[in-house]
Design a protein that fits this description.
This protein is of the alpha/beta class. The chain is about 40% helix and about 20% strand. α2 packs parallel to α3, α6 runs antiparallel to α10 and α8 packs across α10.
């Protein structure tokens, strides 16, 4: 008998909601169906604005909170209809929500995701597990990344040390050592697609550089790359996490302004792809024994970026998680279905070795449909 959960994930790319229908009735979870539902343009603009302080932001946040829930509910209903299911076939929805601020450092560190789970539960008629990150923050952790616990449960191999590399807006790695006595670690390495997407939006009025074609027309600039790599975040030890609060166009413009000569927009794009690949590769190479790298997230569709990454990781086999049985686009959403299941079973689902929390904990809170 199927054991069905739905996972919803909205990442730092702020482009829409990923929805995955996952069956946990067998040893290996099966992604039954997956879809991405894009945000309306107005909501996307609101969310971009909410990533930094603005006038009347509490009102804007409240409106966006409900709007995300409605988009998420539409995504759930789409998946249910396509698979001839009703609400009572689903055990729970695991909803990440949309991060609009992430400042985990210090005594009063915090992370904030919106996408009202009460509205989502009422509109779908399905109980919702949400607010996964703040318990880990309360325990002194980064609240991120959370997917490594899922990666450990699903992708670990007894003979090969692996890295699961998620290239979303921000890139993060999960190290899965073959030796089960070694700790799983994971953390954000820096920008994934976010800088490339924002630069593409500014110059081409396109949300992203499809397949990296635009970047491929440029030439990576060694001077700019050197300036970007001086960012202190890259040399921090883990646990660490980051977001658009740091890696944004203001940050990029400050470095471009220091160049001795002007460079073309497409060469900036090529340089940003190299920044992403180099900062990822540097962290993987520090691990020492990684044989296999499996990529998930939207960055896996950027051919130019993947070529840069493969050139940096010549000692590793680089593939996508499709080779492991889960579509690369669906991994993060599937992780939140898994986190919802863990909550319903009252099982700890954070990894202190990843986030820096003082102990394991059951993550999330329950929002009933009735």
């Amino acid at each position: 008998m199927p054991d069905l959960f739905i996972g919803l994930m909205s990442g730092t790319s702020i482009d829409g909601v990923d929805v995955a229908l996952v069956d946990f009735s067998k040893i290996a979870p099966k992604v039954v169906d997956f879809e991405t539902v894009t945000y309306p343009a107005k909501l996307t603009r609101q969310l971009h604005n909410l990533c930094a302080s603005q006038k009347d932001e509490i009102f804007s946040m409240g409106m966006a909170d409900r709007a995300i829930a409605r988009v998420s509910a539409d995504a759930v209903r789409l998946i249910l209809k396509r698979n001839h299911l009703s609400a009572n076939h689903i055990s729970a929805i695991g909803s990440h929500g949309q991060t609009i601020r992430h400042h985990p450092e210090g005594t009063n560190g915090f992370t904030l995701q919106i996408g009202d789970p009460n509205t989502l539960a009422v509109l779908t008629g399905i109980k919702v597990v949400a607010d996964f990150r703040r318990k880990d923050i309360a325990l002194g952790g980064q609240g991120a990344p959370l997917a490594p616990a899922f990666h450990k449960a699903v992708f670990r191999h007894s003979h090969h040390s692996r890295v699961i590399l998620n290239i979303g807006g921000i890139a993060n790695i999960t190290y899965l050592p073959a030796n089960s006595e070694q700790q799983v670690i994971g953390y954000d390495t820096g920008p994934g697609n976010t800088l490339m997407d924002m630069w593409c939006q500014r110059h081409l009025n396109e949300p992203y550089d499809k397949s990296g074609h635009w970047a491929a027309q440029g030439n990576s600039c060694a001077e700019l790359l050197g300036l970007l790599l001086t960012e202190p975040f890259f040399s921090l030890t883990h646990p660490k996490s980051t977001g658009r609060e740091l890696f944004n166009l203001t940050w990029l413009d400050q470095h471009i302004s220091q160049l001795s000569n002007e460079i073309s927009a497409e060469s900036v794009q090529a340089t940003l792809a190299n920044l992403t690949s180099i900062t990822i590769a540097q962290q993987i190479q520090k691990l020492g024994d990684v044989e296999q790298v499996f990529v998930c997230g939207g960055g896996g569709k950027n051919d130019y970026l993947m070529e840069c990454l493969e050139n940096e990781l010549v000692e590793c086999e680089v593939q996508t998680t499709n080779e492991l049985g889960i579509d690369a686009d669906a991994v993060e959403a599937a992780a939140f279905a898994w986190l919802a299941k863990a909550f319903m079973q009252k099982s700890p689902s954070n990894l202190p070795s990843v986030t820096g929390a003082s102990r394991e904990a059951v993550l999330g809170a329950l929002f009933l449909a009735r």
